[in-house]
Amino acid sequence: MDNARVRQLADRFQARHGSAQLTPSRTSVRTFTVKTLSPADEARWDIFVSTRPDATFFHRVAWAHVIEEAFGHRTHYLYADGADGIAGVLPLVEMKSRLFGHALVSTPFCVYGGIVADTPGAERALRAAACNLADNLGVDYLELRNLRPGPADWPTKSLYVTFRKALDPDPEVNLMAIPRKQRAMIRKAEAGGLRVEIDEDVDRGYDLYAESVRNLGTPVFSRRYFRLLKARFGEDCEMLTVLHDDRPVSAVMSFYFRDEVLPYYGGGGSFARVVKANDFMYWQTMCRAIERGARLFDYGRSKRGTGAYRFKTHWGFEPQPLYYQYHLVRAKQVPDISPNNSRYRPFINAWQRLPLPVSRMVGPWIARSLG
User: Fold this and answer.
1) SS3 of residue 16 by DSSP
2) Which of 35-39, 68-72, 159-163, 334-338 has the least mean pLDDT?
3) Nearest residue to 282 via CA among 270, 264, 257, 306
4) What are residue 198's DSSP bridge partners?
5) Contacts of 90 (CB under 8 A, 6+ apart)
6) Alpha-helix runs per DSSP H in 18-137
7) How far apart, in whole angstroms, are the C-alpha atoms of residue 77 and residue 220?
């Protein structure tokens, strides 16, 4: 079902059911059956997600298809079914790797995930079902990537933060909200003759992204993954490319969800820093998002204390904590699969020295396990 049709059905759902919030007395007597998503229920899933204020782009059902097709991982998309229909959803993906172990994650390759439910009862039912599934699969751990805190007794990783900020409809207001030093970088880039194009395909952007992540010492995803994202999400997945004298120098793939924009996969070639192309790229993404009606700019996840973290604060964004919570099954402690882990430093250093064609050939095999 296409995105326009889902939004149309969501509008009808809201008109009929309002905000979907239930009174405490009604909540206390509701019972739920947790089911595994079938193709026949996919439209209902997306309609529910579109009406929930705490849902994110990464709760959309198309992610299940992208992850299965691009990486071959098994998905377990659970929903709580009640008397009034779907009352909660939980997308889960089973990750199995010799390098990084066996896990059940909501959602890998995404910065947010976890349970979205309209009642505490539906949330409890989904959480219990997820723990039971994790136990039955014999995974090392279950990981839920929450925007908000979950149960206090679940181990929580506080390595990551996100950066989200409201947009004004007036671009000049947004520009003046950016600190003076960063604003000067944007002005300098504009004076340097940079321009942007919206690409119909992902190839130019992918090439720049692949070079960028190789330089950071990170295995790159496959080109096929980027093409699947574009195919599955259509107009809600947009590639913006920055050019200097008709030469592509940086690019970013952004996701659109309701009135939010998420510049998600961005990178630039070696010349991008010289001409301030990355600053220009994000500023133009912000302007483009306003044209499309976005009112919230989501700068995405960063690890505390990193260059990406500092870059986003220089734009005037305040870090907001993310709550990655765990139900441990076979694992004895919270996993530490992160570039900050000293175990991976020799690998990162070696990867940065790989020829670019080699990194593109070998990287996708490793990256499929780095959700």
Assistant:
1) helix
2) 334-338
3) 264
4) 240
5) 77, 78, 79, 106, 114, 115, 116, 126, 127, 129, 130
6) 24-29, 42-51, 62-71, 120-137
7) 26
Inter-helix orientation angle 203-216/223-233, to 10°: 130
299 CB contacts (<8 Å, ≥6 apart)?
162, 163, 164, 165, 263, 312, 315, 317
State the DSSP string of 238-306. Answer: EEEEEEETTEEEEEEEEEEETTEEEEEEEEE-TTTTTTTHHHHHHHHHHHHHHHTT--EEEEEEEETTS
What's the confidence (pLDDT) of residue 344? 58
> Which residues are paired to 78 by β-bridges?
36, 90
Rounded distance, CA 155 to CA 297, Å?
A: 30
Q: Which residue has the tokens 């659970």?
A: 78
DSSP code, position 332 = S
Angle between helices 203-216 and 345-352 (to 10 degrees): 130
Q: Quick one: 370 exposed, middle or buried, by C-beta within 10 A (0-12, 13-18, 19+)? A: middle
What does the alpha-carbon distance between residue 259 and residue 148 come to, in Å, rounded to a whole number? 20
Cα 257 to Cα 62: distance, rounded to the nearest angstrom: 13
Q: Please report where in the chains the tokens 């600190």 appear, as a residue.
A: 179
**Phi/psi at 2 (5° precision):** -75, 165
* DSSP class of 98: T
DSSP state, 87? E
**Type of residue numbered 254:** S
Range scoring the smallest mean pLDDT among 25-39, 215-229, 249-263, 321-335: 25-39
Beta bridge partners of 8: none
**How many Cβ atoms are within 10 Å of 99's Cβ, its own excluded?**
8
Q: pLDDT, tens digit, for every residue of 298-314?
A: 999 999 888 899 999 99
pLDDT given at position 269 = 87
Report the predicted TM-score, pTM, of the whole model to 2 decimal places. Answer: 0.88
